[in-house]
């Protein structure tokens, strides 16, 4: 059987950039074997040491999860599509209702004029608009996803919107976080978001929570709202949001983005799958890059966030065809939507029949982040940008290797450095003179530390030093003419 395997963006670095690979195979497992024999490096990303598929990697044949078919033995027909979907750096009644019609708040004439395009739609109407006014939504984050979510929910007349954020607006946010403006740089995001939402719609309440969402405050915060919208960009918060939603019985409107790919769903554990039914465990740190490392197309969160806002409005209105038990994948580069069925996992640790998660846990630890500093090789030698400058000026025998990507090198570089991207550093280590002292650098110092660890593991004999803070520190301490990005 000739089948096509779709490779997600996050794994394309291991398939020579290929998005689709055709192989001959009769089962899903055989297709993955063919794929990983063509691209060996991919294997450890898909399988663990015991040769089982990793729990943060799901495999679909056409639109069905193989776990609900015959697993890796799931048979394939000619021209079937096998899709690898890894997790990426997103008690109410079955139908959410904001209360009996008589208990719903009324609309003023000003509000009637404002919402007239809703009121003349039978799917919304007066009752629907009053449900929206009675509803409350908590948004986690006012970044790329939170921006359109907040703006559209405010415009639609959702009566009470809570926003949780602790960041300040930075220039690099403005490429996608359209709730904030240039004049807001340096302001707390919740203040900037609150002002924008108030300007869009003065008839609604905006509640600001300037805090990091934690295991200590999540349950109390969630209890006070009807629906939670997850606009976070990291795994600990995503699992925290999921578990807190399951424990408080709130629907979790999920979205996530990476480069030009997005995911969206509604995790409503009262009658559907939760995020842990989809991905029971997070990927180990470093295996899946986040937006700060991988980048994101600026309009992508606009589309995914608008989908989240749409689903939120539909949940409030009691619409039937929501993303409950459906995972929507969007590829902006191909301009394609795909959809997969989700099923509640009876063994899910959060929402299954014998759920083991009865309270919130330490999510940093769960995602393997807490232990990370200790796991760093203690032998990592570091140097500051100022010290590197001194050594280069005093003609010490120091060579500098830049392990960033070529497009980053185009944006900014330290003069006299040699570019060997992280993914090629082991294969090209013969280009590094081991008799000289070698300083490795990247943007902020994380990738170059990985490069040093990889080179040491590969047996590179020379002395390797990490530039602390990367080229960003060089720009701050040594040469401000080097652009920061
Ligand atoms: Zn679950």
Notes on the structure:
With 485 residues, this protein is α/β, with parallel strands linked by helices. The chain is built from 18 helices and 18 strands. The protein has helices spanning 28-38, 43-46, 109-114, 116-119, 125-134, 146-156, 189-200, 218-223, 235-248, 275-278, 291-294, 300-317, 363-366, 372-375, 385-393, 406-411, 446-457, 470-477; strands at 2-6, 20-24, 57-61, 64-65, 81-86, 136-140, 160-164, 205-209, 227-230, 252-258, 261-267, 326-331, 336-341, 381-383, 398-402, 418-419, 437-441, 464-467. An 8-stranded mixed beta sheet has the order 8-7-6-9-10-11-12-13, with helices on both faces. A hairpin with a 4-residue loop joins strand 12 and strand 13. It is globular. The model is unreliable at 90-99 and 372-377 (pLDDT under 50). Residues 269, 273-274, 276-277, 345, 348, 350-351 line the site of zinc ion.
What is the molecular shape? globular
Our count of helices gives: 18
Question: Helical percent range?
Answer: 25-40%
Distinct ligand kinds: zinc ion
Supply the helix-strand structural class. alpha/beta
Mean pLDDT over the residues: 89
How far is the N terminus from the C terminus?
Answer: 47 Å
**Main sheet properties:** 8 strands, mixed
Strand portion, in percent?
A: 15-25%
Give the C-alpha Rg: 25 Å
Physical arrangement of strands within the biggest beta sheet? 8-7-6-9-10-11-12-13
Number of strands: 18
Poorly predicted parts: 90-99, 372-377
Present the secondary structure layout.
Blueprint: E1 2-6, E2 20-24, H1 28-38, H2 43-46, E3 57-61, E4 64-65, E5 81-86, H3 109-114, H4 116-119, H5 125-134, E6 136-140, H6 146-156, E7 160-164, H7 189-200, E8 205-209, H8 218-223, E9 227-230, H9 235-248, E10 252-258, E11 261-267, H10 275-278, H11 291-294, H12 300-317, E12 326-331, E13 336-341, H13 363-366, H14 372-375, E14 381-383, H15 385-393, E15 398-402, H16 406-411, E16 418-419, E17 437-441, H17 446-457, E18 464-467, H18 470-477
């Amino acid at each position: 059987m000739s089948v096509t395997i779709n490779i997600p963006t996050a794994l394309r670095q291991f398939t020579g950039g290929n998005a689709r690979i055709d192989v001959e195979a009769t089962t899903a497992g055989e297709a993955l074997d063919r794929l990983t024999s063509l691209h060996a490096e991919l294997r450890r990303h898909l399988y663990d040491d015991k040769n089982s598929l990793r729990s943060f990697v799901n495999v679909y044949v056409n639109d069905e999860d193989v776990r609900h078919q015959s697993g890796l033995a799931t048979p394939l027909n000619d021209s079937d599509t096998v899709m690898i979907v890894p997790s990426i750096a997103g008690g109410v009644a079955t139908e959410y209702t904001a209360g009996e019609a008589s208990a719903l708040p009324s609309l003023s004439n000003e509000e009637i004029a404002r919402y007239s395009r809703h009121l003349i739609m039978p799917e919304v109407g007066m009752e629907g608009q009053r449900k929206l006014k009675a509803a409350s939504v908590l948004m986690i984050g006012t970044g790329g996803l939170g921006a359109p979510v907040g703006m559209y929910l405010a415009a639609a007349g959702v009566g009470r919107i809570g926003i949780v954020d602790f960041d300040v607006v930075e220039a690099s946010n403005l490429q996608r976080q359209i709730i904030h403006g240039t004049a807001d740089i340096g302001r707390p995001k919740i203040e900037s978001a609150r002002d924008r939402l108030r300007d869009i719609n003065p008839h609604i309440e905006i509640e600001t929570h300037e805090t990091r969402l934690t295991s200590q405050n999540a349950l109390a915060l969630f209890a006070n709202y009807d629906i939670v919208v997850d606009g976070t960009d990291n795994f600990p918060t995503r699992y925290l949001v999921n578990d807190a939603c399951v424990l408080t019985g709130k629907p979790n409107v999920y979205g996530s983005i990476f480069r030009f790919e997005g995911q969206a769903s509604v995790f409503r554990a009262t009658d559907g799958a939760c995020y842990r039914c989809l991905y029971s465990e997070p990927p180990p740190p470093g295996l899946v890059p986040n937006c700060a490392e991988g980048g994101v197309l600026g309009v992508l969160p606009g589309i995914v966030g608008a989908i989240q806002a749409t689903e939120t409005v539909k949940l409030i209105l009691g619409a039937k065809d929501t993303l409950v038990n459906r995972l929507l994948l969007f590829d902006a580069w191909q301009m394609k939507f795909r959809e997969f069925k989700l099923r509640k996992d009876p063994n899910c640790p959060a929402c299954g029949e014998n759920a083991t998660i009865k309270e919130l846990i330490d999510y940093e630890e769960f995602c393997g982040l807490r232990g990370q500093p200790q796991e760093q090789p203690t032998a990592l030698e570091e140097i500051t940008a100022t010290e590197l400058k001194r050594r280069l000026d005093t003609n010490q025998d120091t060579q500098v290797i830049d392990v960033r990507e070529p497009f980053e090198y185009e944006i900014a570089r330290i003069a006299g450095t040699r570019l060997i991207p992280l993914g090629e550093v082991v294969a090209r280590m013969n280009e590094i003179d081991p008799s000289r002292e070698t300083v490795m650098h990247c943007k902020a110092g994380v990738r170059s530390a990985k490069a040093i660890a990889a080179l040491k593991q590969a047996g590179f004999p020379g002395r390797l030093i990490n530039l602390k803070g990367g080229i960003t520190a060089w720009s701050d301490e040594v040469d401000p003419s080097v652009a920061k990005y």
